[in-house]
Amino acid sequence: MVDMAKRQEYVAIYQQGASAKRAQGDLLGEQRSLSSLWLNYLAMAVVECGDVDEAQSWWATNVPGTLLERFAEVTRECVAQVDAGVVPASTIAGNYPHLVLTHLAWALGNFSLGEQFAEIAVRPDVLPLSTPFWREYARAIAALIAGSPYAVATLKLKGLEKYWHAYLPLIDAATNAQDLEAPLFEIDESFRRRNADKRIKQDQYEIEGSGGRPARWDFRRDGLVRYLDARK
In terms of domain of life, where is this protein from (predicted)? Predict the structure, then answer.
C-alpha cells in the first residue's frame, strides 16, 4: 500500500516527466506520464473524499485543471497514430483505463469528455485486447450513451469482477426505464463488501477499494448517477 506522502512524490515525478516529454515532442512518453499522474491523483481522491461533492472540491483544489483534457488530447493523437499504422493498437489498449476515465469525468461533471474516453473503450481494435468482463462493460456504457436498451449478459466472474458487476444492472435498469433504487442499493452494498474483502490482491492502482486499502469514494457509482441525472 502506498501512503499519501509517497503518492505526492509520485505526482511530482510524473508531472515533471510529462512536462519533459512534451518539451521533447515524445507523445507516447507524455501519454504514459500523464496516465500515471491521473491514476495517482485518483488513488488519493478515493481515500480522501467521501462523496462526489467532496471529490469535486478536492479535485479542483489539488489537480491541475487541464490534466484530464490534456490526457484526452494526447490520447486522441495516439489514436490517430494507431489509425495511421504508425504504432500498434496495444498503445491505446485495453479498455480498463478508458472506462475508469469515463466514470471519473462524468463524476466531475465533464460528460462530453467521458463520452470521448468511452468511444476508445469500444473501438474494434481495443476490445480484443481487453478482458471479457471489460468488453461487456464497454458494451453497457455504449448502450447507455446511445440511449439503447441494455441487458446484462451472463458472465463468468472472477476476483474484483464480482464487485464491478454490480454496476451493470444499474445500466440495465436505466436504459429500460426501470426503477433505480434496487440496483443502487446493491451497488452500495457491493462497495461495502469490497472494502471489507481482504482477499483482493489485484487492485494494482489502488483506486478500487479493498480490505487492505479501503476506498471512501465510489467514483463509478457517482459517475453513472451524475450522467443519468444530466440526461433526464
Answer: Bacteria
The domain total for the chain is 1
User: Over its length of 232 residues, how does the chain's per-residue pLDDT go in tens digits?
Assistant: 889 999 999 999 999 999 999 999 999 999 999 999 999 999 999 999 999 999 999 999 999 999 999 999 999 999 999 999 999 999 999 999 999 999 999 999 999 999 999 999 999 999 999 999 999 999 999 999 999 999 999 999 999 999 999 999 999 999 999 999 999 999 999 999 999 999 998 899 999 999 999 999 999 999 999 999 999 8
> What are all long-range contacts of 55-60, with beta carbons under 8 Å and residues at least 24 apart?
55/107, 55/108, 55/217, 55/219, 55/222, 56/107, 56/108, 56/109, 59/108
Torsion angles phi and psi, residue 181, rounded to 5: -60, -50
CA 219 – CA 212 distance, rounded (Å): 19
| Domain enclosing residue 91, as ranges | 4-230
Class of residue 29 by CB neighbours under 10 A (exposed 0-12, middle 13-18, buried 19+): middle
Residue type at position 136? E
